[in-house]
Amino acid sequence: MKCSVRSSHWASEPGVSKMTAWRMASNGRIDGAFRNDAGRWRVEIDDPETETVAYARVSSHEQKSDLDRQIARIAEWAAGNDIKIDRFVREVGSGWNDQRKQLTKLLRDPRFVQLVVEHRERRARFGIHELEHALAACGRHIRVVEDKEIDDDPVRDRLQHARVRP
Description:
It is a single chain. The chain is built from six helices and seven strands; from the N terminus they run E-H-H-E-E-E-H-E-H-E-H-E-H. By secondary structure, it is an alpha/beta fold. The strands form two sheets. The protein has a four-stranded parallel sheet, with helices on both faces. Strands 1-3-2 form a three-stranded antiparallel sheet. The radius of gyration is 22 Å and the shape is elongated. It comes from Rhodovibrio sodomensis. InterPro entries: Recombinase/Transposase-rel, Recombinase_CS, Resolv_N, Resolvase-like_N_sf, Transpos_IS607.
């Protein structure tokens, strides 16, 4: 699959200056070089290496043993569906907030194109559909092993731990 990059980005690969890349493109010496609608030089290149990542998350350290079970379930599902998992990411972090370093690092990685999770709630409790749409707009996909909802109510759980005073 091909994608187009700015000529200055292309120049960084062979180690030539931006101006040299511009001259080479102007003289037709770069295969796949073309001008876009704004008149800027772009170069068509092969897509960089992409990867499929399995993501497992639990809410607390007490549930850490569940991470291995999630990873095993994802690996089994992927093997049955002829999907090669390139990397496994494990994280301990609450679904109530967005402070998950491993997921943030993963989303910033340009090589990641497909995220495989066991349940939708493993990514986040809230904003799941917005995340899916944002990733789809970037050409990335989310695969869910078990697409049914987990039988728990986060609001009910939160209220059970809250103390109500008259």
